[in-house]
Amino acid sequence: IDPESALGVSIREMLQKAGVEPKRLVRIRSFIANGYALRDGTIAVTTMLAAICTEPEVAAVLAHELSHSVDGDPRRLRRLAMVVALSFFAGCAVFGFFLASYNPSGPYLIPAIVFTMIACLRPLMFLTQRTSRRLEFKCDAYTARLGYGRELASGLIKLHRVMGIPNRWAGVDRFTLTHPSLDDRIQALELRAAAAESGPGR
After folding, report:
1. What is the mean predicted confidence (pLDDT) over 151-164?
2. Is-above-0.85 flag for pTM?
3. CA gap 57, 7 in Å, rounded
4. CA-to-CA distance for 23 and 194, rounded, in angstroms?
5. Whole-number Å distance between alpha carbons of 143 and 152
6. Which DSSP category does 19 fall into?
7. What gap in Å lies between CA 152 and CA 137, rounded to an integer?
8. Please, which residues bridge with residue 27 across strands?
9. Using the 8-state DSSP alphabet, how is residue 181 labeled?
């Protein structure tokens, strides 16, 4: 990406607000709309993202991704997933051992273990997904503090429309998916953008 192009200037302005020195600006040929921002200032933008969104909206999406990178969110989620997996298998092993010791030849041993696995896995997965949704809101808030709240909102609307993603999750999907619904994110972004524009003491 040419640093002096409209897109390059928007990205560099965002990085300056974030206190990150630009290192490399890369354009990736892809039909998937996505952007990547590393804490060392390396930025990658897919051609599809640049085609769908305006330059400020691309900068907003990258600010969101930068927050993930700076705060170590991927590493945090990997650690949580590891804890969830270990807790799940440990719980199943303890229950299976207890049940086998109580009645090792009973006909309900295997069904009971399978049922326990399912019953234990759902709450653990819920914890991981809830954490992921909270991190998405955290990164949205970071983007709004940099002054890109409305740009992120409009960019997300375009991305959801192109990818055919509904604006609001139906039923239990609100609690089982890794990202909040678009409507919830837009509402939070609009509130933060309005608060930032009003300024302190107004």
Report:
1. 94
2. no
3. 10
4. 32
5. 8
6. T
7. 12
8. 45
9. -
pLDDT at 105: 55
Q: What is the rounded CA–CA span in Å between residue 177 and residue 129?
A: 6
Q: How far apart are CA 154 and CA 134, in angstroms?
A: 20
Q: Answer for the pair 66, 20: CB distance below 8 angstroms, yes or no.
A: yes
Q: Which helix (H) or strand (E) holds 79?
A: helix 73-102
In eight-state DSSP terms, residue 33 is -
What is the pLDDT confidence band of residue 144, given thresholds at 50, 70 and 90?
Answer: very high
- Tokens matching residue 53: 């969104």
Could you tell me if 148 and 62 are in contact, meaning their C-beta atoms sit under 8 angstroms apart? no
Determine contact, residues 8/1, Cβ cutoff 8 Å: yes
Q: Which amino acid is at 24?
A: R
For the cut 60, the answer to whether the pLDDT of residue 74 exceeds it is yes
Judged on CB neighbours under 10 Å (0-12, 13-18, 19+), 77 is middle
- pLDDT at 117 exceeding the cut of 90: no
> Once rounded to an integer, what is the mean pLDDT over residues 7-35?
93
Question: Does residue 201 have a pLDDT over 70?
Answer: no
Helix (H) or strand (E) holding 42: strand 42-46
What pLDDT is recorded for position 177?
86
Residue given tokens 């390059």 in the structure block: 8
Of 118, 141, 122, 154, residue with least CA distance to 189? 141
Cα 37 to Cα 48: distance, rounded to the nearest angstrom: 16
Contacts of 63 (CB under 8 A, 6+ apart): 14, 18, 37, 142, 143, 146, 148, 152
Number of alpha carbons in the 13 Å side-chain half-sphere of residue 7? 20
